[in-house]
Amino acid sequence: MPPPSKTDASKARTPVSVAMGKNPGRNRNHNRRVLLELLRRNGPMGRKAMADLAQISTQAVGNIIEDLMAEGLLRDLGRLRSGRGLPPIQYALNPDGAITLGFEIAVSELTVTVLDIGGNLRHEEHVPLPDMAPGPVLSMVAESVARLRADYPGQLMGIGVVMPGPFGIEGMSGVGPTTLHGWTETSVAQDLAQRCGVPVYVDNDANAAAVGELLFGKGQNVSHFCQIYFGAGTGLGAIVDDQPLRGAFGNAGEIGHIIVAPVDAAPGSAGPAPLERFASLYSLREMLEAAGQPASLEDLRRHHRDGSPVLDAWLSTAAPYLSAMIGILENIFDPQTVIIGGKLPGAVLDALVERLAIPSTVANRTGERLPRVQRGQTGQASAALGAAALPFFNAITPRLDRAEDGLAPMPD
Predict the structure, then answer these.
(1) Is 180 or 171 the better-scoring residue by pLDDT?
(2) Contact 46, 90 (CB under 8 A)
(3) Alpha carbon distance 302, 158 (integer Å)
(4) pLDDT for residue 180
(5) pLDDT confidence tier of residue 153, bands split at 50, 70 and 90
(6) Residues 336 and 284 in one domain
(7) 18 lies in a domain?
């Protein structure tokens, strides 16, 4: 599902404040991001309104607006015709002024997205990857960047690349066919930055999916949530106080590789079985193929409509293991909600949520609250959407900063 437009001025609403600006000149980059985020979240605004919400001077706002207009990132919409006196000039993000590109490198498939500065999804495509070696895949990414830059001539703020983790591991048990092998020695960010000439940000797919859900989906007004992401395997993106939790080496949230069953408990297992041997897209496809049934995305939708016994058996197997894992996540992270999404069809995700029987945890609270578990809103492209958001919101969103003047690219 495409994210909603962030530049629709027709929706009247109470202006939303963001991280406050700072008046000293040395913090101009921070103030710039604050103003861009205000416009992204609230739509067209005047200088005085931006200054009041950001708590910086009107003069500072005016100087930054001049810079942004010169860069083509803002539009002058003219004066607002309401009230007495000289109405204020309204400024809005120029959706044609800048773009970011997102790439999700998954087992056998590359998903490509284009976001404009207004947060609108401009393009989405899925490309088969017959050769998963780093060289051919990165060449395909670089070729896509060149093609899309010609199609979308706005300023390219950066490129986000996401892939399944874990990153940089050696000899870890539970890592199977859902992980990209042979990539440990490849510096993805450095390689693509040299080829494309723009900043490149690398993260794992579950973290990116959580960022996508935070910015465009069910997590938009939620500061603490866990996102369980079904790629080929199963990962976790944890949002803590509006920030994605990445860990020291980008491997936080690798729940798919947590051992949940003893030796020989999973079909074809020669040792202790991790969660993704039972609850993952890979395990579902494995069961379908063993039964001689096709397992494409459209096939999965059809299996659900037809009441496939194999799909039903997978749901019955996956739900208990996933329920136990959600209980653990609730006790560790104390989230407001757990969101489930990824490359499974929405109807299958709904069926999985219905079968969950989560044990009693700290999430057993009284009073009004969000659903304990819910399906995400951003659909199958959530990780690629989050990938495109990484450089974009590093440039304009102070709430996602890791440092005073920007989010450093993830080490890869």
Answers:
(1) 180
(2) yes
(3) 38
(4) 67
(5) confident
(6) yes
(7) no
| pLDDT surpassing 50 at residue 86 | yes
Tell whether omega for the bond before 166 is within 30 degrees of 0, i.e. cis. yes
Place of tokens 């919101």: 393
129 and 153 in a common domain: yes
Tell me the Ramachandran region of residue 326: left when phi exceeds 0, alpha when psi lies from -120 to 50, beta otherwise: alpha
Which residues, including other chains, have CB under 8 Å from residue 39's CB and lie 6 or more apart? 45, 50, 74, 91, 92, 93
Residue 111 C-beta-side C-alpha neighbours within 13 Å:
23
- CA neighbor of 191 nearest in space, from 231, 262, 138, 239: 138
pLDDT, average across residues 133-140: 91
Structure tokens given for 255: 């729940």
* Burial class of 284 by CB neighbour count within 10 A (0 to 12, 13 to 18, 19+): buried
Helix (H) / strand (E) containing 243: strand 243-244
Domains of the chain: total = 3
Residues paired with residue 342 on neighbouring β-strands, in sequence order? 230
177: pLDDT strictly greater than 70:
no
Contacts of 147 (CB under 8 A, 6+ apart): none
Burial of 263 (0-12, 13-18, 19+ CB in 10 A): exposed
| Beta strand 98-106 pairing with 155-163 | parallel
pLDDT of 284 higher than 80: yes
For residues 225 and 372, membership in a common domain is answered with: yes
- Tokens found for residue 284: 């579902």
pTM assigned to the model: 0.79
Q: How far apart are CA 264 and CA 260, in angstroms?
A: 12
Please write the tens of the pLDDT for every residue from 190-227.
999 999 999 999 888 898 899 889 888 899 889 999 99
DSSP state of 301: H
Residue 36 belongs to domain with CATH number: 1.10.10.10
pLDDT (tens digit per residue) in 285-298: 999 999 999 998 89
CB 384 within 8 A of CB 112: yes
Domain of 75, in residue numbers: 25-93
